[in-house]
Amino acid sequence: MFIEPSSHKCAFNALFFVTLHVSVGLITSIQPILAQPSPSVEPSSVEFTTPAATSEEISPSTKEESSPQFNRYFLDTGDTLNVIVQRPPGLYRLGIGDSISVSVQRFPDLSFQAAINPEGNIVVPLLGVISLQGLSLKEAEAKIRSGLNRYVIDPIVLLSLSGERPNLSFSAPIGQDGNIIIPQVGKLFVKGLSLEEVQENIRLALSRITTDTVVTSLSQIRPVQVTITGEVSRPGIYAAGVVIPRITDILPLAGGSTVTADLRQVQIRRKLSDGSTVSQNVDLYASLQSGGSPPNLRLQDGDAIIIPRREVGTDDGYDRKLVARSTLAVPQIKVRILNYAAGGIVTQSLPNGSTFIDVLGGVNLNTANLRDIALVRFDPEKGKAVTQRLDGKKALAGDASQNLALQDNDVILVGRNLIGKLQNLFTTITQPFFNVQSFLQFFQTFGNGFLGGGSN
């Protein structure tokens, strides 16, 4: 548990106190830039906020349930379809565009050649118009023989395929208007439809000219840009670097989740072509606990990912060290060290998941008072700094209670004199810290004022 520093007044340099208040006031008046646009998005100072829920939003009733809208890929401008029109297996079936040659023995005047027209018909001497679409060569031959048998006795009819119909397979990019062009048919609107729906619509459109099987696939997927907001290091819009991106591909692009993130309730929002919005909650923490694969939810262009903040009192069972060691968290943290004996302030970068012992590597153990060290951390909910006294010797000796897990922007104070002055100053300051920037600026000014300089 972190405790607030003890309250006891002491004399303090008035000039430095006024300077400190001015420094804190200036830094709290500056709004941080929250968005970190990807290179493909024009830079902007617009602050990205969490999208508001609409009355049309549809949310699954439980985390385990998945909205059907998240199980399918919805087509849009930039996608390219590959449509294969293929004959079904087995006997060759006649279709529009096939050419046949018919020989009638003993009656050469009845022999003919013909191509099956768009209606699936041919014209036969004596018989007129008959339909052959979908028939095998033997079935077509028998149909013509049966018809001629009404005019001549037992005609011998021989039918052969003289020319196969053209291949109707094609590739079609989806245009800005949401349409594709189907050869010999024309435009077909496909934007916002799933691949299965589009395949059926293409089959129906081609049914006027063929009964062949239609197989539709994606030959090119549009670039995916996703907005990520909430408890991440760099909120903004990011272009996915993989063809089929998942949440775990996008989160590292935004610098990873912060220490206050709740990976149990990550929300994905998707706007559909009709203007409605669907949402899906994803539990990334469960996969970290089990060591299994993360949820297999594919992101699409325009999706929004919201990483929520953990609510007060919901830390039970939530292992922050486990999250810190994963690829879902900020990869590195920065810890400031104010060492009275060394006479300066330094910033040390450490892997996320590091502990108090790890930061001692940056402290001169020969001159430092290891038994009198303070860890100061900004509490965003209280808007103030909280402090815990630590014993470095016990931590190095294996006392787990003294080897705390570090967080980004922690401040380590080494030396009884320095800690005492900080405690006295905390009792004098009445203005709260508004954000972590003002917290860090306070310690930078504090270090420069008492130690006579330092480095970032």
TrEMBL record:
Transmembrane segments: none annotated. InterPro entries: Poly_export, Poly_export_N, SLBB_dom. One of its GO terms (biological process) is monoatomic ion transport. Gene3D superfamilies: Outer membrane lipoprotein wza domain like, wza like domain. Residues 44-68 are annotated as: Disordered. Residues 225-307 form the SLBB domain. The keyword Ribonucleoprotein does not apply. The keyword Ion transport applies. Residues 89-161, 165-216 form the Polysaccharide export protein N-terminal domain. GO terms for cellular component: cell outer membrane; pore complex. It holds the Pfam family SLBB_2. GO terms for molecular function: polysaccharide transmembrane transporter activity; porin activity. It is found in: Cell outer membrane. It is a multi-pass membrane protein. Keywords: Cell outer membrane, Ion transport, Lipoprotein, Membrane, Palmitate, Polysaccharide transport, Porin, Signal, Sugar transport, Transmembrane, Transmembrane beta strand, Transport. Residues 51-61 have a biased composition (Polar residues). Belongs to the BexD/CtrA/VexA family. This is Polysaccharide export protein. It comes from Nostoc azollae (strain 0708) (Anabaena azollae (strain 0708)).
